[in-house]
UniProtKB/TrEMBL annotation, chain A:
<dbReference type="InterPro" id="IPR036188">
    <property type="entry name" value="FAD/NAD-bd_sf"/>
</dbReference>
<dbReference type="Pfam" id="PF13450">
    <property type="entry name" value="NAD_binding_8"/>
</dbReference>
<dbReference type="Pfam" id="PF05199">
    <property type="entry name" value="GMC_oxred_C"/>
</dbReference>
<feature type="domain" description="Glucose-methanol-choline oxidoreductase C-terminal">
    <location>
        <begin position="390"/>
        <end position="506"/>
    </location>
</feature>
<keyword id="KW-0274">FAD</keyword>
<protein>
    <submittedName>
        <fullName>GMC family oxidoreductase</fullName>
    </submittedName>
</protein>
<dbReference type="InterPro" id="IPR007867">
    <property type="entry name" value="GMC_OxRtase_C"/>
</dbReference>
<dbReference type="Pfam" id="PF00732">
    <property type="entry name" value="GMC_oxred_N"/>
</dbReference>
<feature type="domain" description="Glucose-methanol-choline oxidoreductase N-terminal">
    <location>
        <begin position="87"/>
        <end position="304"/>
    </location>
</feature>
TrEMBL record, chain B:
<protein>
    <recommendedName>
        <fullName>Tat (Twin-arginine translocation) pathway signal sequence domain-containing protein</fullName>
    </recommendedName>
</protein>
C-alpha cells in the first residue's frame, strides 16, 4: 500500500470513498496524481458481510448520532436515523442495489420546465444532459450496466415476474430488468451474480459494481492511491489567500492528523459533506467554508419514496435474486397533468422478515403486523422513487447540543414534505397497488418512507455563485481548489436513482481537476 | 446479563406479552421465549428500562381479576392495547420486532430461507421458479426519451 507524507502538499485529498469519492480518486490515480482517500469507516470486504439484515446494518450503517426535525414521517419513526447509508470503504455503493436510469433532459432544467412552484427553491442546473451524455456512457461502461453498451439484461426473478405481468396488464410499456449495475455475465474481472438476494447488506460475490470492488482496487494498482480507512475528517483548512491547504482528521487511534493537499475533494454524502463545510468555519468563512451564499446545507432532497407490497394466493419468494432488478419507467415521463410535477419510477424491492416487520408500520404491533408477516412467502414488493422538490428550509445544519464520539457537533436533518411530494407519493402508491391488483393481489399494503438512502442537493451546482455552492464542475464558488464530488452537488434530484449520475459527474470532474492541476504543476 | 430482580413469573408474563404483541398462531413458544430473554438481557444493561419493565409487568397483572399470563388471547390483546405508547411497551416492541423476526426458527416458519451465499445463492435454486404467471419480457422495445 502506497503512503504519502502528511506534509506532501502535492496530493489530492478525497474525503469519502463512495460513488463520488471512489470514482474521482480512481480517475485521478489513473492520470498519475497522488491521491489520499480518507474514509471515516472501516475497510470491510465481501468475506466480512453478514447475510442477516440487522447484523449487516450494525456492521455497515452510519450509526453515529444524528438528529432530525420537520414534519416528514422519518423524524417520527426514526428520529435518530434520518438516513440509511454506509460508513465503510466503498461508502453507500456497498449498500446500493444497482438501479441505473439516466436523468432526462428536462430534469436538468427543472425550474424552466416546472415553473416557479410555491414553496420550492427550484433552479436549473448549469449543465445539460448533452454535456453529461459522454460521461454517462463512460460511467455505464465502467459499472458494467446491463442493457447498455452490449451488456446483457438480467433474467426475470420471481418478484419481477409479478411486477412485470402487473405492469403489462395496467398498460405500462417501459418495464424491464434494468439498467442495473450487477453482472449478468462475468465482466471487468468480476463474476456473474449468483442471485443470492443480498444487496443492501453488501455483495459477498463482488458481481455488483461498487467502488470497493472496482474503482479503489484499480486505483491501488496504479501506485498512486493512499487509502486510509477509519479516518474521520474534522476540518478543512485554508490559507489567507482563501485556498484550501489540507484537512485535519482523527485517525484510527484517535490522534488528530494534518494532511496537506493541493486540492481537496469532499464526498461524504449529502449529510456529512455540508456538515464538514459547516464545521470548517473560520474568520474568513464565518458561516462555514464555501458558504458565502448561505446555501451550504440547504435544498436537501431525499427523493419522494414509498413502498407497495402485494400479497397473493401463491408463493412469490421475493427474497430470491437481485433485489432491484426490475423497473417500470412509464411514470417517469414529463407529464404535469397528474396533479404534480416531476416523475417517478417503480422498482422491485425485497426485505427480509426482520426489516419488513420493522418498516411495514414503524412502532406498530399486533395482528395488523403479524397477519402481513404470516403471508411473507406470498408477498411481492416495489419501491416508488420520484423527484422531490428542493426547499430552502429543508436543510442540514449543525445540531445545537448533540456531538459525536470526537466531540464534533452532529448533523441535524430538517425536512418538510412539499405538497407536490405528497401528491406524487399518493399517485405512486395507487398505481403500485393497481399493478399488483391486476395480477390478483388479495391485499396491498403501503409502507411509509424509510430512512433516506438518496441524500442530495446540500451543496448545489449553480450558474450564479449566490444561488448555490459549486460551479458546473463541482468546484466551490468561494474556494478555487475545493471540490464537492458527491450527490450534494445536484441542483435538483430528478426521478432516477442517483448513483449513475454521481459517477458520471465525478468522472467529468476528475478530468477537469486533472487539466487544472496540470496547468499549475507544469 | 439478566437481572436477579426479574423473577421466573415476570419472565412468563413477558413471554405472554411478547405473544400478545406479535401473535402468530403457527409459532411455538420457543421464539417468544428467546425474544423475551433478549428483552430481559437488554434491560439488564439499562437500569431505567429495567425499572420500566418491572413496573410495566406489574401494571399489566393488575388490569384484570387474574394475572396477565392467565388471560385469554383476545383479552390479553385488549389489555396490551391499553398500554400502547407507554415507554415500557414501546421499548419491549422495539426490541422484540428485531429479535423475533431475526430468529432462524421464525424464518423457517414464515418460509424465508435466510443466508444463501454458502449454498451458491439462488441461481440454481429457484430464483425464477414462479410458475403461476407467464414469463414476462425483460427488455423494453425502445428507449423512452421523455
Amino acid at each position: 500500500m502506497t503512503r504519502f507524507e502528511y506534509d506532501d502538499s502535492d496530493v489530492v485529498v478525497v474525503v469519502g470513498s463512495g460513488a463520488g469519492g471512489g470514482t474521482v480518486a480512481n480517475e485521478l490515480c489513473q492520470r498519475g496524481f497522488k491521491t489520499v482517500v480518507l474514509e471515516a469507516g472501516p475497510h470491510l470486504t465481501g468475506e466480512d458481510y453478514h447475510q442477516d439484515e440487522w447484523a449487516a446494518f450494525g456492521q455497515m450503517a452510519w450509526s453515529d448520532p444524528r438528529t432530525t426535525s420537520g414534519s416528514w414521517q422519518v423524524a417520527t419513526d426514526f428520529p435518530g436515523l434520518p438516513a440509511w447509508i454506509v460508513k465503510a470503504v466503498g461508502g453507500t455503493t456497498t449498500h446500493w442495489a444497482g438501479a441505473c436510469p439516466r436523468f432526462k433532459a428536462h430534469e436538468f432544467a427543472a425550474r424552466s420546465t416546472y415553473g416557479d412552484l410555491d414553496g420550492t427553491s427550484l433552479l436549473d442546473w448549469p449543465i445539460t444532459l448533452s454535456e453529461l451524455e459522454p460521461y454517462y456512457d463512460r460511467a455505464e461502461i465502467k459499472m458494467g450496466v446491463t442493457h447498455r453498451h452490449g451488456r446483457p439484461p438480467l433474467p426475470a426473478n420471481n418478484n419481477y415476474k409479478v411486477f412485470a405481468n402487473g405492469a403489462e396488464k395496467v398498460g405500462y410499456k417501459y418495464y424491464s430488468t434494468g439498467p442495473y449495475a450487477t453482472n449478468a455475465e462475468p465482466y471487468d474481472g468480476r463474476p456473474a451474480t449468483v442471485q443470492d438476494g443480498f444487496n443492501f447488506q453488501g455483495d459477498k460475490h463482488g458481481s455488483k459494481w461498487s467502488t470497493l470492488v472496482a474503482e479503489l482496487p484499480k486505483a491501488e494498482r496504479t501506485g498512486n492511491l493512499d487509502l486510509r480507512p477509519d479516518s474521520h475528517v474534522a476540518q478543512i483548512e485554508h490559507d489567507a489567500s482563501g485556498r484550501a491547504t489540507g484537512v485535519l482528521y482523527v485517525d484510527r487511534n484517535g490522534t488528530l492528523r494534518r494532511q496537506r493537499a493541493a486540492v481537496v475533494c469532499v464526498a461524504g454524502n449529502s449529510i456529512e459533506t455540508p456538515r464538514l463545510l459547516l464545521l470548517s468555519g473560520s474568520a474568513q468563512h464565518p458561516d462555514g467554508l464555501a458558504n458565502s451564499s448561505g446555501q451550504v446545507g440547504r435544498n436537501y432532497m431525499r427523493h419522494t419514496t414509498g413502498t407497495v407490497w402485494g400479497q397473493f394466493d401463491k408463493p412469490v419468494r421475493m427474497w430470491r435474486g437481485e433485489t432491484m432488478a426490475g423497473v417500470i419507467a412509464d411514470e417517469s415521463r414529463l407529464d404535469t397533468d397528474r396533479g404534480f410535477v416531476g416523475g417517478y419510477y417503480m422498482e422491485t424491492i425485497s426485505l427480509g422478515p426482520a426489516f419488513l416487520a420493522k418498516f411495514i408500520a414503524p412502532g406498530r404491533w399486533g395482528t395488523p403486523v403479524t397477519e402481513l408477516l404470516d403471508q411473507y412467502r406470498n408477498t411481492a414488493g416495489m419501491w416508488i422513487i420520484g423527484e422531490d422538490m428542493p426547499r430552502a428550509d429543508n436543510r442540514v445544519t449543525l445540531s445545537g447540543e448533540t456531538v459525536d464520539q470526537h466531540g464534533l457537533p452532529v448533523a441535524n436533518v430538517h425536512f418538510d414534505d412539499h405538497e407536490n411530494d405528497v401528491a406524487m407519493r399518493r399517485h405512486g402508491q395507487r398505481q403500485g397497488a393497481a399493478v399488483y391488483q391486476a395480477v390478483g393481489a388479495r391485499k396491498t399494503i403501503e409502507t411509509p418512507p424509510y430512512p433516506s438512502t438518496h441524500n442530495l442537493g446540500t451543496c448545489r451546482m449553480s450558474q450564479r455563485p449566490r444561488d448555490g455552492v459549486v460551479d458546473r464542475y463541482g468546484r466551490a464558488h468561494d474556494v478555487p481548489n475545493l471540490f464537492i464530488s458527491d450527490g450534494s452537488v445536484m441542483t435538483t434530484g430528478a426521478a432516477a436513482n442517483p448513483t449513475l449520475t454521481i459517477v458520471a459527474l465525478a468522472t467529468r470532474q476528475a478530468e477537469y481537476i486533472a487539466t487544472e492541476l496540470n496547468k499549475t504543476l507544469s | 446479563m439478566a437481572s436477579s430482580l426479574v423473577s421466573a413469573r415476570d419472565r412468563q408474563t413477558l413471554v405472554n406479552v411478547v405473544y400478545a404483541a406479535f401473535p402468530h398462531s403457527t409459532f411455538p413458544r420457543g421464539p417468544y421465549e428467546r425474544a423475551a430473554d433478549a428483552v430481559i438481557d437488554q434491560a439488564g444493561k439499562d437500569p431505567r428500562f429495567l425499572a420500566q419493565l418491572l413496573q410495566g409487568l406489574t401494571d399489566l397483572d393488575a388490569q384484570r381479576e387474574v394475572p396477565f399470563a392467565e388471560l385469554d388471547a383476545d383479552v390479553a390483546a385488549a389489555v396490551l392495547r391499553g398500554a400502547d405508547g407507554t415507554p415500557f411497551l414501546t421499548a419491549v416492541v422495539d426490541s422484540v420486532v428485531v429479535t423475533l423476526y431475526s430468529d432462524p426458527e421464525v424464518w423457517e416458519l414464515l418460509g424465508y430461507e435466510g443466508p444463501s451465499y454458502e449454498q451458491g445463492g439462488y441461481v440454481d435454486r429457484g430464483f425464477d421458479d414462479l410458475d403461476w404467471l407467464p414469463d414476462p419480457k425483460i427488455e423494453h422495445d425502445e428507449e423512452m426519451t421523455a
